[in-house]
Amino acid sequence: MEETWTVFRRYSRFREMHKSLKLKYPELAALEFPPKKLFGNRDERMVAERRNHLERYLRNLFRVMLSSSGSPLRADADAFHLTKHAICEFSPFFKKGIFEYSSHGTG
């Protein structure tokens, strides 16, 4: 079973995280961050689309960081598993707002 987490943050906070991580880890510079939409950003379909793009972005971010030699998340073992603790240590952005499985809360 694949573990999932939900991170409750505004889009602008994800953008800030992306910018700060790119400065710290140059290998993330090629990672495309989902573009900001000027109109319709409250539309349910657009919000769902943005969420999907952010999920894809985060998967790619962790994929790059797991394979990067300068990353604290580097996977040296074949069976490495990203843990909530490792992700929180990687970036303070994730310290609040991660809720395992389908739990809910405020962050």
Question: Could you write a compact summary of the structure shown?
Answer:
It contains 3 helices and 2 strands.
Q: Layout of SSEs?
A:
Elements: E1 5-7, H1 11-24, H2 44-67, H3 84-90, E2 98-100
Antiparallel strand pairs: 1-2
Please describe what this structure looks like:
The chain starts with a strand and ends in a 7-residue tail after the last strand. Strands 1-2 form a two-stranded antiparallel ribbon. By secondary structure, the protein is mostly helical. Mean pLDDT is 77; it is low at 99-107. The chain has 3 helices and 2 strands; from the N terminus they run E-H-H-H-E.
Element-by-element helix/strand order: EHHHE
The beta-strand count equals 2
How much helical structure, as a percent, in the residues? 40-55%
> Termini separation (Å)?
26 Å
Q: List the total number of helices.
A: 3
> Mean pLDDT, rounded to whole units?
77
Q: Roughly what fraction of the amino acids lie in strands?
A: 5-15%
Shape: globular
For the biggest sheet, the summary is: 2 strands, antiparallel
Low-confidence stretches: 99-107
Strand order of the largest sheet: 1-2
In oligomeric terms, what are we looking at?
single chain
- Classify the secondary structure makeup into a structural class: mainly alpha
Radius of gyration: 14 Å
